[in-house]
Amino acid sequence: MPDDRPNSQPTTRRAKDGRGAASDLAATQDPRFHEIPRERVADRVAQELLRLIAGGSLVPGERLPGERQLAQMMNVSRVSVRAALQQLKAQGLVSATQGGSTRIIASSESLDRGLGRLVRADLRNLLDLAELRAQLEAWAARRAARLGKPEQIEEIARLFEVMADPARDPKHKAEDDFAFHMAIARASDSPVYLHLLSVLGDIFSENCAFHRFELCPTPADDRRFLAEHRAVLEAIRAGDEAAAARAMMDHLSSVIAAYSALPERTASAAGGNGR
Ligand SMILES: [Zn+2]
Question: CATH: 3.40.50.300, 1.20.1070.10, 1.10.10.10, 3.30.450.40. Which one for 41-104?
Fold first, then answer.
C-alpha cells in the first residue's frame, strides 16, 4: 500500500514514532528510500478476510461470526478484528447489519441505485440490461453444468421443486424464480460473478417481479417459465454445458421478446418502484 508509506516527511514521522535518531538526518532525507511500515495484526486479519472473500469461501450476503468469535478463531485481539473490519468496510467489502453483525457485500449500493435510475429513465436501457443479464446467466449456467458441486445442484433442484409445487402460493413466484437463478450463480463457482450479481441483484430481482406479475402474468406464462426452468435444471444436472447455456438463453430470450413488445410508457414500472 504505497499511500501508507511516510515518504513525504520522513524526519517528522520518525521523531513522532520514536524510531531513528536526529544524527541520521542526512540519511533520512534521501528520497530514494522510505520506511517500510511494520505490518499490523489488523492488516493481516483484513488480508486474510479479503482472501476468503476473493476465493469465494465467504460469499456476498453471508454474515460473519461476531468479533469475539473471529478473534478466538484467528487467535488475535478483538481490537485487531474490529480494525480489520473497519478497513474492509471502508473498501466496500463488508457492511454492518442492523443487528450489529457484519455481512459480506460486493459494494456498491450507489451503483445499483444509479443503474436503477438509468433503466427506469429509458426503455432501451432496460432492454440492454435484460440482454446483458441473459449473456451473464447463460455463462453461469454453462459454468454450473461444468463445475457445480453435487450439493449445489441439489439446491437448484430443490428450488425448482418449490416452484413446481402446485400448492405453492403464486405470490411467491418472483422470489422463487430469483432464488433459482441465484442458486445457479452459486453453483457457477465464481466469486467474481457472485459479487457482480450482488451489485446487480436488486435490480434483477425487481425485474424478475415485473416479468412474473406484470409482463407475463398468466397461468400459461407460469407453465412456460416452469418448463424453461426445468430445461435449465436438467442440462445442469446432466453436466451438459452447451445445453445449459442454450436453455438459459432460451428462457431469458422469451423475456427479452416480451420487453421488445412493451410500450415505452411502461418502462418506469419495469425498473421497479421506490428507489
Ligand atoms: Zn427464471
Answer: 1.10.10.10
